[in-house]
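hi! just following up on the protien thing from before. the input was this:
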Amino acid sequence: MKKLRIYYKEEDKIEGKNVCKRVFELLKELNISGATTFKSIYSYGASGNISNAYIEIESYNMGMRMDIVDEDDKIYKLVDILKAQKLLLVISDCEVIYGDKR
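and the predicted 3d structure came back as:
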């Protein structure tokens, strides 16, 4: 199993669509199990700009992270599609453990 983390900014676009919306469309097309998106309260990246949820004027276009876990081949198919975009993609090995379904 692989975990893909995608880092981007709230206002980033892929094919004219919000990154989150477009990636979720791709997940459905590729039959990937699911994903979770996180919004930062502080972020800093290659641009050198700090985004900060505590200061209203700086709180636009915050950093985002999406975590996706699935079989290796599905993750690499998604990466092949996304690697041409201005996104930071991080792949790591993971072990999936399902908790008790009480």
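The mean pLDDT is 86.
The CA atoms of residues 43 and 51 lie 5 Å apart.
cheers
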